[in-house]
Amino acid sequence: MLVQYGLGAMLWPAAVVVAAQPANTPADETAISAAPGTLDQPPASMFTFGGFGTLGVVHSDLPLADFTASPFESVGAGHTHAWSPAVDSLLGAQVSANFTDRLSAVLQVMAEQNADSSFSPHVEWANIKYQFTPDLSVRVGRTALGVFLVNDMSNIGFAYPWVRPPIEVYNLVAVTNNDGIGFSYRIAAAGGSNTIDGSVGYADYDYAIPNSHATGTAHATQQFTLVDTYQRGSATFRLTYGQAHLTIPTFDPLFDAFREFGPQGVGIADRYEVDDRLIAFYGLSASYEPGDWFAMAEWGRVNTHSVLGETTGWYVSSGYRFGVVTPYTTYAQVRPNSGTRDPGLDLSALPPSLAAPAAALNAGLNASLATVASQRTVSLGARFDVRRNVDIKLQWDRTNLGANSQGWLTNLQPGFRPGSSLTLVTINLDFVF
Amino acid sequence: MTLSSRIAAAVLALGATLTGAEAGADVVAVVSAKSDIKTLTASQVADIFLGRVSHFPNGVLAVPIDLSDGSPERDQFYIKIAGKTPAQVKAYWSKIIFTGRGQPPKAVLTDLDVKKIISMNTAAIGYIDAALLDDSVRAL
């Protein structure tokens, strides 16, 4: 009813006043008389539709590699496109259904660059929620995995200040969903509110194998997260622990081959293979957003106990709003805590006929270790709120890759030097409806 | 009256209307006159309207009644209680809606509707133009 009235009101200026008036009156009465009922009953329509999107382009001055926004993208800015629309652009639509005031469901479908560089849509989340009390709910299905402050909403550019969340932290746990069950429990605490979110489940996802234009599938099972969020006024603090058992079959041929080389090869395979490997994640976040300005800082560490390494990332970001313009700056970095090189098999102990394949395996292992990211980025940008549901953002990033590191870059070309630098310029338009 | 002076007068009148809508009206948070709630801080009101708490400080369930997006009273209210511009309020709810965590408060069309609901329900909390205050509701 409210929606119908709203449409009527929007059309009203274009319509003949006399004709519009009788149409408005009954709707108005219905709205008033129905409104008290909304306090304890579902609204007239149980369905709510909405959507969001980003249209943007990124330019990289480094043509010898591609910059991408996540490991799930196969092409980006630099080598594939000088100005890439494929890095940040996406479109999402959502329908929510409130069956009763306790039982609801949500379905969100999104189109963004997939690991195979297509834009075919996928179900981002689909779950059923039961609200036991106003402060305790349980969700079953595919839900958002909210380990950092904005990673469950990293697709909704309109919801945060930057063109994209700092990848130095957000790529540590790039998975944004969980197929399983989760709960959320909120209590009043120390003048604010404390919310505990827990989930168990699994996730299967396709990712872009670095430098290959091929896709691999990762399986995360026994996925478990516990997130504690304390909010008081404009301040938010979050502590996260997460773990999963990760299997990436793409690595199997490499480590199966190592196992053919006796105890030393078996030792290398046991140390690095990604087969049901326990990965653990710790995160710490703080933000203060009183309205005219914001300051945010997040820190995360992920240990994969595998060739994917152990890394720590953090960022600090702050901005000030002048009317509709919010300039901001961010510093972010990610560093490996584990070694990114390994001598591999001892070639001198092998007969010449085996030394060549062993050298190839060592090279393969070190190529994978080199993808453990090390980089730091300084960003300057501004968000312009052009309408109440549309913004335009402009951001400049300067990224320095760590010594011997390719950072988060992919599709490396001959002549690419590890440890080099690049400058990105991004222009994005975000909207919600 | 020449055409140009009539246009000038119309522009002035329009300007006055816009100013009145944006800054002239004073919006106040209200509960039912029968409610036990006597006073709330701006931050307590903000917590209720932003869905951060579900109950009044005295433990009674709180049901916020919003005005629909785009109403000047709504814009003024969120600036006043939370320092949030209309775009910031939109961004805030986008986070919650599109992560499937919740929905914004029920919204009605006018603050007369708000007053009518508030006066009939002790759990409800809303905001209206101060000029509409009467003994059916209590300003916080």
Pick out its properties.
heterodimer; A: 433 residues; alpha+beta; Porin; 16-stranded antiparallel β-barrel; two-stranded antiparallel sheet; 16% helix; globular; disordered N terminus; B: 140 residues; alpha/beta; D-Maltodextrin-Binding Protein, domain 2; five-stranded mixed β-sheet; 5 strands; 16% strand
Folded structure, characterized:
- The complex is a heterodimer of chains A (433) and B (140).
- With 433 residues, chain A is an alpha+beta fold.
- Chain A folds into two domains: 1-40; 49-338 and 371-432, Porin (Beta Barrel), CATH 2.40.160.
- Chain A contains six helices and 19 strands.
- Chain A has a 16-stranded antiparallel beta barrel with strand order 1-5-6-7-8-9-10-11-12-13-14-15-16-17-18-19.
- The two termini of chain A are 18 Å apart.
- The model of chain A is unreliable at 1-42 (pLDDT under 50).
- Chain B has a single domain (26-139), classed as Periplasmic binding protein-like II (D-Maltodextrin-Binding Protein, domain 2), CATH 3.40.190.
- Chain B is 45% helix and 16% strand.
- In chain B, helix 2 crosses helix 3 (72-82).
- The longest helix of chain B has 22 residues, at 3-24.
- Chain B is globular and about 40 Å long.
- The interface between A and B is large, with 56 and 43 residues.
